């Protein structure tokens, strides 16, 4: 998986107190959401949150950078 794919993925978070599953838009398929609700999970669709950046050392020892599209940064290299 490319680091940009992982950094850009919608986020899913389970909040224990308030017992709530927070999901960003397009974070889970509609059938998955329906099944989780059928099992009793309380689901809250939320606005995108977070800002993650990453650097990965690839198998050939080069560096690969990725910036979260929800943030204001961009990957740069030397």
From TrEMBL:
Highest taxon of the lineage: Bacteria
Pfam families, per the entry: G_glu_transpept
Name of the protein this chain belongs to: Gamma-glutamyltransferase
Species of origin: Brasilonema sennae CENA114
């Amino acid at each position: 998986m490319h680091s940009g794919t992982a950094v850009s993925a919608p986020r899913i978070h389970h909040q224990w107190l308030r017992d709530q599953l927070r999901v960003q838009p397009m974070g889970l398929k509609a059938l998955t959401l329906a099944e989780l609700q059928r099992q009793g999970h309380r689901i809250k669709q939320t606005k995108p949150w977070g800002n993650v950046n990453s650097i990965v050392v690839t198998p050939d020892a080069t560096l690969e950078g990725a910036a979260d599209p929800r943030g204001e940064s961009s990957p740069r290299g030397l």
